[in-house]
Design the sequence.
């Protein structure tokens, strides 16, 4: 009798959880990648729009594959997640995403605020017979390039990937430990002549993991292995601000963080996308296959596309929103701080000469030499990456590790004692 009673209690509890789950929205996002005050504001906004209550359960991840494995293998019932471009591609091909509802009744549809440039790139995601724009909405984006200290590296040098091979930079170059980003960026750069002659195109190159192309990039990486002082997932930008490295192949978001931090201590750091071309990356909102509150998930994604929310998320994270439009352009413009450039690819024809941050919004001529990354032959690229890194465990690497550990300890102390209003920065760890 006692056993039967226990079973009844468990069943009733499960039923109660199921009922509560109808009013719960489980969001799975990168750490420090949102203005978390918006979460509570969404709960109120959603009830105002639909008359239904909702409670957000917010969880974070630090590696794309962690998020993916929980959904793919664990069948976790996250309602909204924020994977990177190549993971969106993989999830589409593996039938792990649900379409995003675009019917919000009397609530305005803000999904159209996503910049045409972002939508065009999402059209290029290889998702089998599915269009990525039906299953994902761009959230943040950026580029791959070089953070450099002009005290040691001139603007002219940084304008070409060849600067990585300068023998004067022994042990002073940091490489982002992200094989797909580095491979795509360098493959495009090393094929500049073929691109200019029309022998290939950016889209073809971005999908190319042939033995010849992998060897081309691998040989280039080996050619300056003595210059590489370390492979970093997050500490590179901080090492740049301490002059422990002179150059860092990294992401534009990390570059902006480093530039801002350096400026506070009177140091000049800069960011350059080499003229040969490079890679662009994207993160986007999706509704995973096992979601249990698709309606609230679609409304949440719609809410994040409101211009004022996009601006708040940029202010908090330091990364660049996929949202375009006049409000964003006005918020990001500063005639006194930046030289004019052509950002019409992102904001429209009226933005062909605007004063915006060049690190966050590259000039049209620069961005047209960049291509997105794809979910191509991961195993072959990982093997190449292991070979390159395995040959590069030099004394500089160990010295840098010791310096990094000391720097991290100091950073923790400073972080919790210094009273400042610095924006948080998101660290994207990709595989």
Sequence:
């Amino acid at each position: 009798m006692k056993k039967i009673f226990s079973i009844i209690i468990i069943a009733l509890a499960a039923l109660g959880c199921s009922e509560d789950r109808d009013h719960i929205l489980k969001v799975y996002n990168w750490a420090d990648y949102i203005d978390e005050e918006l979460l509570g504001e969404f709960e109120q906004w959603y009830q105002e729009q639909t008359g239904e209550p909702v409670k957000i359960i917010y969880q974070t991840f630090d590696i794309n594959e962690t998020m993916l494995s929980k959904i793919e293998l664990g069948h976790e019932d996250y309602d909204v997640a924020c994977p990177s471009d190549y993971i969106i591609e993989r999830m589409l091909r593996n039938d792990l995403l649900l379409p995003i509802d675009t019917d919000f009744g009397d609530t305005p549809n803000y999904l159209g605020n996503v910049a045409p440039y972002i939508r065009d790139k999402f059209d290029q995601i290889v998702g089998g017979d599915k269009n990525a724009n039906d299953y994902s909405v761009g959230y943040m984006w950026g580029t791959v390039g070089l953070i450099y200290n002009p005290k040691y590296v001139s603007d002219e040098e940084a304008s070409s990937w060849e600067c990585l091979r300068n023998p004067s930079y022994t042990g002073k170059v940091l490489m982002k430990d992200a094989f797909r980003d580095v491979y795509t960026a360098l493959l495009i750069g090393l094929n500049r002549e073929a691109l200019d002659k029309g022998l290939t195109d950016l889209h073809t190159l971005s999908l190319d993991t042939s033995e010849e192309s992998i060897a081309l990039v691998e040989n280039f990486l080996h050619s300056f292995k003595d210059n590489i002082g370390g492979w970093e997932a997050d500490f590179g930008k901080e090492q740049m601000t301490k002059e422990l490295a002179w150059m860092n192949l990294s992401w534009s978001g990390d570059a902006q963080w480093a530039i801002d931090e350096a400026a506070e201590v009177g140091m000049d750091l800069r960011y350059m996308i080499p003229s040969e071309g490079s890679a662009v990356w994207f993160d986007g909102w999706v509704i995973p296959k096992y979601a249990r509150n698709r309606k609230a998930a679609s409304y949440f994604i719609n809410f994040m596309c409101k211009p004022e929310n996009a601006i708040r998320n940029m202010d908090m994270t330091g990364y660049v929103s996929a949202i375009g439009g006049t409000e964003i352009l006005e918020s990001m413009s500063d005639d006194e701080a930046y030289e004019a450039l052509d950002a019409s690819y992102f904001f429209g024809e009226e933005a062909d000469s605007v004063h915006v941050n060049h690190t966050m919004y590259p000039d049209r001529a620069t961005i047209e030499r960049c291509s997105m990354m794809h979910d191509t032959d991961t195993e072959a690229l990982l093997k190449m990456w292991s070979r390159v890194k395995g040959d590069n465990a030099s004394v500089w690497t160990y010295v840098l590790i010791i310096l990094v550990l000391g720097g991290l300890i100091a950073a923790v102390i400073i972080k919790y004692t210094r009273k400042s209003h610095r924006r948080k920065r998101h660290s994207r760890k990709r595989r």
